Amino acid sequence: MPYTAELVDEMNLLVKFPMHSDLEGIKVRGDAAPEMVAAAKRLFEKGLVTQEDGGYLTFSGHQAVESAKATLRILTGTVAV
Questions:
Q1: Number of structural domains, the chain?
Q2: Do 81 and 73 touch, CB atoms closer than 8 A?
Q3: Residue 5 half-sphere exposure toward CB, CA atoms < 13 A
Q4: Are 26 and 17 in contact (CB under 8 A)?
Q5: Does residue 63 fall inside a structural domain?
Q6: What's the pLDDT tens digit per position in 25-72?
Q7: pTM listed for this prediction
Q8: Which of 12, 16, 38, 60 stands 20 to 30 A from 66 (CA)?
């Protein structure tokens, strides 16, 4: 299955979440880019974040971020993302 623009938007938003603390999240403001607002809502509908505008990662969200960041490290040849 090829990556769609919507999936890429979701992955770009996911990798912005901090992984070092369960007490930190993100908020996608209403005046953010429309694709990021839509991506946050889709991530919420998929059960990966706690709020329609971001919030905190769920357990599944943490797993998704770990995988997304690992993929970025492999593809970009960086040590840490």
A1: 1
A2: yes
A3: 4
A4: yes
A5: yes
A6: 999 999 999 999 999 999 999 999 999 999 999 999 999 999 999 998
A7: 0.88
A8: 38
